């Protein structure tokens, strides 16, 4: 059994402490996708983070392994090592060059958004004006498909996400997004988006953030409730877990350099609370998830699908 967490955030800093990943592994996770940058991060910061994370992984082969394929994940699990891949939250680090996708894939990026909350030259963010996928965006999509990177529509505008899913030659995921029908936040996804994702063979991975779960102190039971909704809507084959736990560490400032305005990226009018961070499910929520899913009536094989096999299927269909 492979447990797959589709999105996790350490500090965007080359010296980030990987200790939380040891806790995640101890809680039962076999593969985790770690964010290495977003649209607000300049390429210099993204590259520094990738280099720093790769160095930490290489220095600790008994604990971590940067993987490029599903067989690597299976072997890492057998060896008792946490398998790791990287993800980008937005296409701006590609610098409007579709060919950058292949370079990022070589560096370990296995999953990528096209926009983060706000519009860019490629795609729409979920908190901005709807335009749809741009001509450049279509070229980027083709390049990302060709590079073997999983297409991720979390943080993407609804119209744009539907266009991405219609045009992608590979399955598309929402790596950390919850049903809008349960919690009407702009970052959550509508039934139409969930159906479209399933039609690509993709997976909606449920987030563990309080804002999107509708719980001030979120727990595994809250995650399971959202999993159950997606499973009931489109089938258990199209739901997974991406808890989106974000770790901050003392003395590590990962604020993007330059003119960075948090209120622009996370507008209060869209449901964010100025000066107040969200609450996250605890790292050991992974230990409680099987029981909570059993309470929903899921069989053991269905629980295995949700906790990892569905994302393994997407990776097999996508990674080169």
UniProtKB/TrEMBL annotation:
Q: Can you tell me where the transmembrane regions are?
A: none
Domain of life, source organism: Bacteria
Q: Which GO terms describe its biological process?
A: proteolysis
Q: Which GO terms describe its molecular function?
A: metallodipeptidase activity
This chain belongs to the protein called Peptidase M19
Species the sequence originates in: Pseudoduganella guangdongensis
> What taxonomic lineage is listed for the species of origin?
Bacteria, Pseudomonadati, Pseudomonadota, Betaproteobacteria, Burkholderiales
């Amino acid at each position: 059994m492979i447990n797959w967490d589709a999105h996790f955030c350490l500090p965007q800093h080359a010296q980030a402490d990987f200790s939380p990943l040891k806790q995640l592994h101890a809680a039962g996770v076999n593969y985790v996708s770690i964010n290495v940058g977003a649209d607000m991060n300049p390429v210099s910061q993204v590259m520094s983070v990738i280099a720093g994370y790769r160095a930490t992984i290489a220095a600790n082969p008994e604990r971590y392994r940067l993987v490029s394929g599903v067989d690597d994940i299976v072997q890492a699990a057998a060896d008792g090592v946490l398998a790791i891949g990287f993800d980008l939250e937005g296409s701006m680090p590609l610098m409007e060059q579709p060919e950058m996708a292949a370079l990022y894939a070589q560096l370990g990026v296995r999953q990528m958004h096209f926009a983060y909350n706000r519009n860019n030259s490629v795609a729409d963010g979920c908190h901005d004006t709807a335009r749809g996928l741009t001509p450049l965006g279509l070229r980027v999509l083709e390049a990302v498909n060709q590079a073997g990177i999983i297409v991720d529509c979390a943080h993407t505008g609804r119209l744009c996400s539907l266009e991405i899913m219609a045009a992608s030659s590979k399955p598309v995921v929402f790596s950390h997004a919850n049903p809008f029908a349960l919690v009407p936040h702009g970052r959550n996804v509508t039934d139409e988006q969930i159906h479209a994702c399933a039609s690509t063979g993709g997976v909606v991975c449920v987030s563990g953030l309080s804002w999107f779960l509708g719980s001030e102190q979120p727990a595994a039971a809250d995650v399971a409730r959202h999993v159950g909704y997606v499973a009931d809507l489109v089938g258990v084959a199209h739901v997974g877990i991406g808890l989106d736990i974000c770790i901050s560490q003392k003395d590590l400032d990962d604020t993007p350099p330059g003119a960075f305005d948090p209120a622009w990226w996370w507008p209060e009018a869209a449901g964010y609370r100025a000066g107040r961070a969200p609450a996250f499910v605890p790292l050991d929520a992974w230990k409680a998830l099987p029981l909570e899913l059993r309470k929903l009536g899921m069989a053991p094989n269905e629980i295995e699908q949700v906790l990892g096999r569905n994302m393994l299927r997407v990776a097999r269909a996508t990674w080169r």
